[in-house]
Amino acid sequence: MKKTVIVTGASKGIGAATAILFAQKGYNVVINYNESYESATLLARSLSENGFSVTTQKANVANRLEAELLIKETLYKFGRIDVLVNNAGVAFEGLISQTDEVEYDRIMDINLKGVFNCSKAVTQVMVNQQSGKIINVSSMWGETGASCEVAYSASKAGVIGLTKALAKELAPSGITVNAVTPGLIETSMNKNISVEDLNDFVESIPLGRMGTADDVAHAIYFLASENADYITGQILGVNGGYVI
Ligand code: NAP
Q1: What residues does 58 pair with on adjacent strands?
Q2: φ, ψ (nearest 5 deg) of residue 166
């Protein structure tokens, strides 16, 4: 039977690359988006035109009811959910003194509560199936902390804690839970960083380049594959050796 994956935040960047890869590997793919209706629709259309099985589903993952609906609609359309990729995320750069409570809550609600909401909603489905894979997209800043990204780093560190705890809880039901921690990846999330700052950063990456969305997508796909059946609760760095 054809497998089904939900990729949250798949309208662009790492999520879009992940959706494309899973489609090419033969999955039914649910492209979740929140604001970027046009790019999500364009991506779905181009994949469908090439014969792949994809659908789009709008949901703000920070909203529990919308996250629940994302899972329900997917189950209704495809009958099962094999993989959930919790990728949706937002960044904020600024001193802690510039990070007001509203911004802090926004980052935590999307980056951490969004992972909680979608994981909680999919858990019952996967427990009933006695199988499933959840892959969370954290960040190397969740491991090391980034200066001027207190809220973001905290949210991504939270994702690592959630991943480890949920892995222990769901292992007896045949469900694995892992995370990837990308380094500096070429996506619109980094569009505000100056070329000069990017070049400085790249000089400190052992592999000497920024990562691509495809680099992360392949790590996610590996964790979702049968080759990773005995891997759970693990945090896989995709950072060109920046964090070792
Ligand atoms: P991106 O190009 O800005 O894409 C972010 C995606 O998240 C978009 O598809 C966006 O969809 C979605 N999103 C944002 N808020 C959402 C919400 N409330 N509900 C549902 N979807 C939402 O960024 P990216 O670099 O691909 O980031 C993807 C993930 O990788 C994030 O979790 C990010 O923290 C993580 N990451 C990125 C890097 C990097 O260097 N780029 C490094 C480490 C980790 P809409 O536009 O439709 O709202």
Answers
A1: 33
A2: -70, -30
Which sign, positive or negative, has the C-alpha torsion 92, 21, 173, 56? positive
Query: Residue 61 CA: which ligand 1 atom is closest?
Result: 19
Contacts of 108 (CB under 8 A, 6+ apart): 151, 154, 155, 158
- The residue among 52, 7, 18 whose CA lies nearest residue 187 is 18
| CB-based contacts of 71, cutoff 8 Å, min separation 6 | 6, 81, 118, 121, 122, 125
Helices 114-129 and 64-78 pack at an angle, to 10 degrees, of 30
- Looking at the predicted structure, is the pLDDT value of residue 47 above 90? yes
For the cut 90, the answer to whether the pLDDT of residue 1 exceeds it is no
Mean pLDDT along residues 49-61: 98
pTM given for the model: 0.99
Asked if residue 87 has its Cβ within 6 Å of ligand 1, the reply is: yes
